[in-house]
Amino acid sequence: MGYDRVLPGIATLLAVFLNIATPPDVLAAEAMTLEGYYAAALQRSESTAIQMEQVHQAEERYEQAGSAFLPTINGVATYTRQDPLPSGSPQTPTTLNQQNLSRIALNQPLFRGMREYAALRQSRNLLTAQEQDYRNAELLLYKDVLQNFYTILALEGDIANYNEEIRLNREREADIRARVRIGRSRESELLNLQSTISTLLATVEQLRGQLYVAREALVFLSGLDAATPLIDAAAPPAKLAPLATYLDGIRNRPDVHASSQRLLAAAEGMTVARGGHLPSLDLNANYYLERPGYLNDSQWDVQLAVTVPLYAGGSVQSKVREAGSQRNQAELTQSQILRRAEQEVRAAYQSVSLAVSQEQALQNATEAARKSYQAQRREYGLGLVSNLEVIQALTAYQQNQRALARASINARSAYLQLLASTAQLPVMKSKP
Length: 432
What we know:
The protein is of the alpha+beta class. The chain has a single domain, classed as Outer membrane efflux proteins (OEP) (Up-down Bundle), CATH 1.20.1600.10. It is built from ten helices and four strands; from the N terminus they run H-H-H-H-E-E-H-H-H-H-E-E-H-H. The chain has a four-stranded antiparallel β-sheet, with no helix packed on it. The protein is elongated and about 140 Å long.
């Protein structure tokens, strides 16, 4: 039995086996849109969950910064024994052999060089930045889902188009086989066509391997069944808005928002560092439950304490310089993010424009190739062209058909990538 006859038989057996072995619930899996796929991925993603935990941590740090304005209250109890003083020495509360002290101590900060206000604003900025990081994690997940979604659709489209080409070639094979029997065609024509069919079958199997990998990525991202069918209803607009419109949308990007907030936080960090040069004022109060010696009857005291920093080994000035460097770093980071965002938007816009133009051109080319193939088939029946010319016309038609399908998918994918690059997506409207 020839190789050309074995392959179709094997393919048929595999198809029958797969139909038998596939569970009914997989075969009847509900079709999933891009939005549904993303929703499933969002629930499964550890990356976004980690970012959400970091938001919670930033909220707690903001609460901690706010506590600097509130008093601290502590219960203090001490028991002291010491070597007795010589007989006749004056007795004071601090010279007693045994000292018991218990008190409730209150400390209320009144002035700390405005450091506490700057620290609170800094924590608020960092919290907002962390919230934007969470939104950015959502957006990055969406881009991963988007790429995988259209990769699967493109591969499935290629397989369908190759199968259609195989079907048309098999029709040609049957016609030529009949012509060979009556001597109107050469056997070499039949062998050449069978070789073409075998090559197409091998290409389909290669694409099936790529599709398997893409489907496994779908399972990893979303937890959906690997056989879940995907449907796409997206379409780029007939005419794109001017590029400037999308460039203006850069300010809506969460990574840009986050970098702006971190720059503000770095500026507040300089205020916090400079506050180390300023005096601080505290209110201290104690309520005594037990005191040693003749102070036992005195139940409370209040104290105003002023602390003026004079010298700390240069550590305060070093912290000021460090904070200035951190602010410069934040400015550079923001500039880098803005330039990258602009480059991403420009590239996405160009991709959409080219994809739409290519799709329109391929529509005309595919229609012309289809008519050429049909004409070649008719002329072959009249003996005006060779079988090789018919095969070449069919190949050209199918190549254009596959290119058109790919261009259509690329146009839809590129348009959604453009929207994602400016955060113009419904997912970005939710709050963490």
